[in-house]
Structures are given as structure tokens and as C-alpha cells.
Amino acid sequence: MDGPTPATNPTTPPAASPRPLGKIVFVCALLAAGLTLIAWTAVRHFRPARDPEDNVGQQALDHLKKHKVPLSGSLETLLKDTKRAPEKFLVLTQDHPLLAQQAPDFALSAVDGKTWKLSERLKDGPVIVVFYFGYHCNHCVRQLFDVNEDVRYFQELGAQLVAVSADAPESTRERLRQFGKFQFPVLSDPDNKVAQSYRVYSPGDGKKEATLLHGTFVIGTDGLVQWANVGDEPFTGNRTLLFQVAKLEGRLSAGP
Q1: Which of 213, 218, 206, 209 is nearest to 242 (CA)?
Q2: Which pTM was predicted?
Q3: How many other CB atoms are there within 10 angstroms of residue 87's CB atom?
Q4: How far is the C-alpha of 219 from the C-alpha of 199, rounded, in Å?
Q5: Which end of the chain has fewer CB atoms surrounding its CB within 10 Å, N or C?
Q6: Cβ atoms of 212 and 188 closer than 8 Å
Q7: What is the DSSP track for 116-141?
């Protein structure tokens, strides 16, 4: 006769089955390998974003190609057009403090390492001085390419163009190597000292930040500032500049 069946405790949980430790380790190792592969692939294909300054020159060229209407025809034809309809083509000078005053003389280093001096250059003809923020500024570089496209007209009038910024010569030299040289000198004005003398730069004093403006000045061979434009945007009216130089050279008798 069989003995009595042992009583069971209904509250006792069934014995837990052993955990598949080997499988857990395997899965963790597989996940780790996958994450490592993903990270390695990301690093391998990662490319830092290009500095916007790297593209400034090309952006300026592309914009001019799309929007600029180049001057064409002979210089005489252009001057006749502006004289017949000055209100259509010409911009009056601003009432700048240096207008009709002696232009501050300066001597600065060009990208080729040579010194460029205003008073010496004025012996050969009028000078147009363009102050720009630097090669990091889209609008500034666009202005330089813009006037460079029409430089032959200024040369025909015997006028010289020069661009000035606080950029170091070696920095500008590299930009010119990338995007092409201009047919006029590009000068370095450390700390904007010359820009300050032309009232396009104001240093900060602890209470206010430094301010820098665009500036374009037409200077006659007598050293006097004959026309000026200063502001937040660069001046791109090449017809106006040609007209002003032509008046100084006796090619025109009247005009704004």
C-alpha cells in the first residue's frame, strides 16, 4: 500500500529556472560590437562644416555673374550717358566731414609686401580709396570684384583704385590665390588706424562697441576729397565713380 501523498504548500513559488548567462553575455558583446562599428563609421565619414569664409570669394563671383550688368562700350559713350541723364546714373556725394578737405595721407603694406603711399600715388592721378570689412564679408568682396570688372575704364582716365582693410597681408594673399587677384592694390590697415582717420571706424571705449563702416572716397591730385560715400553697405555705382574722376581730369565740365 502506497504511503500518503506529501502535502504541498500552495504559496510556495515554483523553483526559478537558471538564467541563460551565456546568451546574455553574447548579446551584450554583439551590441557593443555594433555600437563600435557605428561610431567608427561616423568618425570615418565625418567632415567638419566648411568655414563660410572659405566660400566668400566664390559667392561673390557667382552673385556678380547672376546680377551684375557689366559696363560696356567706350568710356566716352558711358560719360555721355551719365551727363545726359545724371539722375538715372549718378549718386551725389554725402556730406562727409572730409569732403573738400585734405585727405589723410597714409602708407600701408600691400599683399606683395611693398609699401603703398597715398601722397606718392596722387602724383600720377586721382585715387579711389575703398575701405572694406575684410575678405570674410560677402558684400565687401562683391564690391571689389565689381569694380575690378570695370577697372579698365578707371585706368583709361588715369585713376588708381586701392582697397583697404584690417586683414593681414598673408591672409589676403591666400584669398587672392584661391579666387584670383584684383587689378589694384589691396592694403592692410592693422587696427583700422587709417580707417579711423577717414571716419569709417570708431574704436570701442568700454561703454560702446567699436564700429566699422564701408567707405569709398574719390581723391583728386591736389589731395582733396572730392566725393564720399560711407555706410552699412558698400558703394557699387561705378558709373558715378567714373563720372567724378572724369570731372577731375577735365573730361567733363558739369555734373553732380
Answers
A1: 218
A2: 0.74
A3: 7
A4: 15
A5: N
A6: no
A7: EEHHHHGGGS-EEEEE---TT-HHHH
Q: What pLDDT, in 10s, does the model give residues 35-78?
A: 544 443 433 333 333 344 567 666 655 655 565 667 889 999 99
Q: Which residue has the cell 515554483?
A: 14
Please state the φ and ψ torsions of residue 128, each to the nearest 5 degrees. -105, 120
**Averaged pLDDT score across all residues of the chain:** 81
C-alpha–C-alpha distance, residues 156 and 141, integer Å: 24
CA distances from 38 to 25, 27, 29, 32, 43 (A): 20, 17, 14, 10, 9
What is residue 32's three-state secondary structure? Answer: helix
Report how far Cα 105 is from the mean position of its chain's Cα atoms.
26
Q: In CATH, what class is 53-248?
A: alpha beta
Q: Report d(CA 159, CA 66) in Å as an integer.
A: 28
Of 16 and 164, more confident: 164
C-alpha cell of residue 102:
585734405
